[in-house]
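Dear colleagues,

As part of the handover before I leave the project, I'm documenting each prediction I ran so the next person doesn't have to rerun anything. This entry is a single chain, and its sequence is reproduced below.
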Amino acid sequence: MRQNPSFAMTDVGEIRRLIDRHPWVTVISQTADGLVASHYAIMLDDTRDDLTIVGHVGKPDDAIHGLGEREMLVVVQGPHGYVTPRWYGDVPAVPTWNFVSAHLSGIPELLSPEENLRVLERLVDRFEGDDHDARSLYRLPNDASFVERLERGTVGFRLTPTRVAAKRKLSQNKTPEVVETIIAGLSREGGTHAELAVEMRRAADARPRA
């Protein structure tokens, strides 16, 4: 990802927030047959306070990716959306796309079956939430054999990235007045654009005042 100092996101806390809010990622590896990509949910490692992530892949994706043997790129995609030049006013301007994204690269460590089970439990608990009928991995009696079969069909990993490129392109190069107009336009469009508007508001509020 080409970096621009105006849009670089270097704060570990902000990147962790991005990962936590957008756990569905793209996993990319270079293989003898070319690039291969898969899509999985990941989480921050709850024993660390850095950018270490944990997750799992289903077999045989571990073999396809050469998991644990070669570098892997994890692409985290946050909110994004089209920005029309209409929002810049009556001036020469081109359309663009605002977004928040991070690339985490490194050679992952394979988890033991016990560690993988813990990651699977955390994933299920995270996305089931607190509803009264939420179903944990071990919800039903005598589920141990089922869960063991589930674990054997997956391979867990932990990735402490050796390279991180994170970017938050949220019209930081525009005047505060234009930024407010873009935020208002995205908010009116709603849907996924509303989340992008929230991210632009956070960036605008953190902007140094003249």
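The radius of gyration is 20 Å. DSSP finds six helices and eight strands in the chain.

All the best with the project,
I.
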